[in-house]
Write a structure and sequence with these properties.
The chain is built from 4 helices and 25 strands. With 427 residues, the chain is mostly beta strands.
Length: 427
């Protein structure tokens, strides 16, 4: 019975989603829901879920009059202590200056550290509760930074199957680590690491700057002069062949091209004698084999320079303005896979998006630079009743009270699930 239902539903979805670029009237919402619910890794999903673990906060500041400070920094921890902290944002300032600076703040973060920096590199640091909107340096501490400082970085995880439900929900078909840095008054630098490719088929990737049109950008170049597409023959790009650093989306959005073929950007092997690309899976297994390979993670840093009229808006630019997405071919059409809040964007391609109900998403963002994503074939976390009524807890993030499945069922709780991996099931 169970096997026949799968066959029926899968056959249905091939018909239902045949409307890729033409006959959308063929779409049957009821059958599509049945298919996704049957394959879901959880019994129920909070229909208010946006799958967010961070939020944008704007902090008001005032640089003391008569001071010689040149910069204002915001950190995840105290830079005066021997620790590893992330730089959340920074701004060139002058004495007496007032203003607002926005930050992307994880829900779990209780405090933010603000630091005024002088020309000699001395830091004047104060702690600000994450719930507070104003910065005061009345009781600050002065010293030299002792922490290891990194740019704030988040991990982005993608499933390759959109618009079909996933087979495993291991969220490792493409894994990106993205860090953001304000490098000049009119410039940001986006550091993109391609950490893993666990997909079986070709995947392309792009990055939209949410809220910014193509005309807002003066230029985009990479620090190394190289991109993820270097050394790849253009005739192998297949369904996506745009290689300019900056392109205009369907609605004239600013879009940075990342890679046309994720496998080739990581590493590839052409089978001897026939020239056919052999697609291995990279950094999703703890052992290399004929199918899996452990390899270095390529990094490309994109320097984005904005036109003068957009400079003031950069004080509000955070990781939340980044919309990384992948493109995959399915049933003669090309689909984009976005984070839930950008699900309807359709930046490069035109296709149908069902927004009437929610199940597990095809993409996740985790506010952690070294998030332990699941190994190939390991679900991110099941919490589902079996046929005999017993609740099953299986997968990489299933610690009771701190599980992914519980968070899926209640978007207001269990935000700390990503801090509780099963190390044996994660990379």
């Amino acid at each position: 019975m169970r096997k026949s239902l799968i066959i029926t539903l899968v056959a249905s979805v091939y018909v239902l989603l045949g409307m890729t670029s033409c006959n959308k009237e063929m779409y049957d919402e009821k059958k599509y829901r049945e298919l996704i619910h049957y394959n879901s890794a959880v019994d129920s999903v909070d229909q208010q879920h946006m799958w967010q673990l961070s939020e944008v906060k704007s902090l008001r500041f005032e640089v003391p009059s008569g001071s010689k400070y040149t910069q204002l920094h915001f950190y995840t921890g105290n830079p005066l202590k021997k620790d590893t902290v992330e730089l959340m944002n920074r701004l060139d300032v002058t004495e007496g200056q007032k203003g607002i600076l926005s930050l992307s703040v994880p829900y779990l973060q209780d405090s933010i550290y603000a630091a005024l920096v002088d020309a000699s590199g001395n830091y004047t640091v104060t702690s600000v509760p994450a719930s507070q909107g104003n910065v005061s340096f009345a009781s600050a501490t002065t010293g030299r930074p002792m922490a290891i400082i990194r740019n704030q970085s988040y991990t982005y995880l993608f499933e390759e199957n959109f618009p079909e439900p996933s087979n495993d929900y291991d969220y490792n078909d493409v894994v990106l680590r993205i860090a953001l840095e304000r490098t000049a008054r009119n410039q940001i630098t986006i550091h993109v690491t391609l950490a893993a490719v666990g997909a079986a088929k070709q995947i392309a990737g792009c990055l939209r700057l949410d809220g910014y049109g193509y005309g807002a950008i003066d230029s985009v170049y990479t620090i190394s002069g190289k991109t993820f597409n270097d050394g790849i023959a253009k005739n192998s790009y297949y369904f996506y062949d745009k290689t300019d650093n900056l392109v205009a989306g369907r609605n004239n959005e600013a879009v940075i091209n990342l890679f046309c073929d994720a496998h080739q950007s990581m590493m590839f092997k052409v089978s001897a004698g026939n020239g056919i690309l052999e697609r291995k899976k990279y950094n999703v297994s703890n052992q290399s084999s004929e199918t899996y390979q452990i390899t270095d993670e390529p990094i490309v840093s994109y320097v984005v320079t904005f036109k003068e009229e957009y400079v003031s808006s950069l004080n509000y630019f955070t990781l939340d303005n980044l919309d990384p997405f992948i493109l995959t071919e399915y049933n003669s059409g090309i689909f984009e896979t976005h984070l839930e809040r950008f699900k309807e964007a359709q930046v490069i391609m035109d296709y149908f998006v069902d927004t009437t109900f929610k199940d597990l998403p095809w993409a996740l963002m985790v506010p952690q630079s070294d998030f332990h994503y699941p190994l190939e074939g390991q679900s991110i976390g099941y919490r589902k009743r079996t046929e005999d009524g017993i609740v099953a807890l299986m997968g990489a993030y299933t610690e009771l009270g701190h599980s992914f499945g519980e968070w899926a069922e209640d978007h207001t709780r269990f935000y700390d699930w990503y801090l509780h991996p099963n190390i044996k099931m994660t990379y």
